[in-house]
Amino acid sequence: MGARGVLFAAVLAVTLATPLRAQSLIADLSEHLVAITTGFVGVDVLLFGAVQPPTDPELAGLPPGDVVVVVRGPERSQTLHRKAKVAGIWMNTASLTFGQVPSFYAVAANRPLEEIAEDTVLAANGIGLDHLDFDLPAAKASGSLREEWRQGLIRAKQREGLYAPDVGQVSLLGETLFRSAVYFPTNVPTGVYQAQVFLFRDGQVASAQVIPLSVSKIGLEAELFDFAHGQAGAYGLIAVILALMAGWAGHFIFRRD
Question: 156 Cβ partners below 8 Å, 6+ apart?
């Protein structure tokens, strides 16, 4: 059993040892900090938990419900540009700024979303790319044009690897346990994320839990990032000096050869 298997067994033991009491859902993450260092190549974070079977005697023996996981990155404004050919040259001919756009978005479920709940329920909880409602004043775009821009933004995020194109897998283990892995790519934005876990029964949300997750730069990369943004002038000057020194050193070395 690898390190991940040992970790999963340990956290499941903790979950089983924790009484559910009145809660019908309890979940947690294998780690609450994704540390971005100079060698960061992406990481899988394990989400695990347990659900309480229905207490109604008439429902005894039936599945405890469906589990859906939604991971959202911090919301930020996002400007999208549209290119078109003008006199044979591709140029930005239109742009639109969206507000409150999740910088990262991923969904996982134990079965297809359309089999779990109706579109109205999924939309009310922001579950699925089709139900992501970005902040965009109707005066700027309406009807089909608004949807066209929204789809364009989603495609742009998918090309960056920040929006998962497909629904991931939540694995149900036995009658109460579940697990799912969420992948964070190398270009994952920093900030505080939310892992939302929903328990559905009969097409409705029976219980929900929100787990915070921090994505942060640490070490030398974090110090350089803070210096570059906090002391932009000094950072630029040092970069120019280093470039000049590197050019001079290269010229000196090749001249001697």
Answer: 80
